[in-house]
Amino acid sequence: MNGNGWGIPGANVVTWIMLLIVAISLLHGVRRGASGSAKHLLAFLLSAVMTVAAIAASALLASALSPRLQAWLAKHSETQQGTDHKALALVWHTVWASLRDLPLLRFSVLFFLIYLICRLLAGVIAGALASVAVPPLSVFPAKGSLGRLIGGIIGALLGTGRVLLFTAVLFAYCAIFPRAQVADYIEQSGLYREVAAQVIEPAAGTILGDGLPVLAQAFNDELGQLWQRRYDVIDANLPKDITAAAASVTEGMTGDEQKAKALYDWVGSRISYDYDKADAYIDRGEWREQDPGTTFDTRMGVCIDYARLYAAMARSVGLQARVVTGLGYDGRGGYGPHAWNEAYIEEQHRWIPLDATWAQAGNWFDVAGFADTHIEQTLS
Questions:
Q1: Dist. CA 265–CA 362, nearest whole Å
Q2: Is residue 315 classed exposed, middle or buried when 0-12, 13-18 and 19+ CB atoms within 10 A define those classes?
Q3: DSSP assignment, residue 19?
Q4: What whole-number distance in Å separates Cα of residue 100 and Cα of residue 69?
Q5: Order of strands, edge to edge, in the sheet holding 320-329?
Q6: Helix/strand/coil (H/E/C) assignment for every residue in 95-152
């Protein structure tokens, strides 16, 4: 495919889809006549207006309710402790914590639920308005040459509205994924570029063109965090010797920072790096999966094993902790796959980074410049 298909300059499949939408709508208008086409146009306009109103109302309500929901979730959060965890309970805890800590996820869930209600109400209102507005449309000629001519004109207007909606969707896609090959192909359509430049950009260019990429990146970041929380469930059921060790290490400590540092020192000094496991993965692509119990028993592991053991032990003594994956500085000017942790310090109301894998090479507990050597993974 190229940007000059079928001998029309600037035409491609996108162009022909846009033209086909108008053509089909025009033909349907001719077939329905003026009266039927006017009813369809009215239904389309009412649906569009009610959809926009429902989206706007849902966004406003979700924005207002999100901080209240976050505060409620934080107040009623119950930290998972011990070894007696049921799978469903851990899934529920993960969902609860994700809604509490991820603002866009929380907003999205609220928006979806509120939109369902608003859209239902909007449908009822649209039906009531249509019942009032449809009877007067009967004055339009239903058939005959004049009726079909007017119907065709109305159908073309309806098709134009559908093309604008189609263009807006494509414009949003190109704004979110500007480097995608499909986006480049869409931009080759001369008709798309003209409609986008003359109608879509003036109407919502700032929101779609500038806001969506930022929003998409924020969603991408939160999805990465949500994906990393799978270890909360996978590593929930800990052997009693691990929880006993965690309790012993943090015995007598009341502050979260003291507990987090004690566990960091313990994991960082007790676990040895498994170079054979790392070499097997790097040289042969052979990955040896192990859970925190195996890491604890063998006292060996690679970065992800350090991180999973730390997070599991921290959660067992009442700390909020998570595994973070991404890239770590390799000391030779490059970066390689790596994993570390973040722990929430309640008295400071913040998450702190720590890297038990690197503990024997220096202090990597909440140090300045941590982000210079650790790049968190995002889903892209």
A1: 11
A2: buried
A3: H
A4: 8
A5: 350-354, 335-345, 320-329, 374-376
A6: HHHHHHHCHHHHHHHHHHHHHHHHHHHHHHHHHHHHHHHCHHHHHCCCCHHHHHHHHH
Q: Where in the chain is the domain with CATH 3.10.620.30?
A: 238-376
Averaged pLDDT, 33-53: 82
Spatial separation of the C-alpha atoms in residues 179 and 94, rounded to whole Å: 34
Structure tokens at 36: 């039927």
Contact between 11 and 188 (Cβ < 8 Å): no
CB atoms within 10 A of CB 105: 18
> How wide is the angle at C-alpha 273 spanned by C-alphas 269 and 275, nearest 5°?
165
pLDDT tens digits along 154-182 = 889 999 989 998 998 888 788 777 777 88
Average pLDDT over residues 136-161: 77
CA-closest candidate to residue 48, choices 106, 150, 114, 129: 129
* Contact in structure between 345 and 363 (CB atoms under 8 Å): no
Q: What are phi and psi of 13, to 5 degrees?
A: -60, -40
Answer whether 346's CB lies under 8 Å from 258's CB: no
- In the predicted structure, residue 215 carries a pLDDT above the cut 80: no
Q: What letter represents residue 152's amino acid?
A: G
The structure tokens 């306009």 sit at 45
Query: Which residues lie below 8 Å from residue 242, measured CB to CB, with a gap of 6+?
Result: 292, 293, 296, 309, 312, 313, 316
Pairing of strands 350-354, 335-345: antiparallel
The CATH topology of domain 238-376 is: C8orf32 fold (3.10.620)
Residue with tokens 């950009």: 201
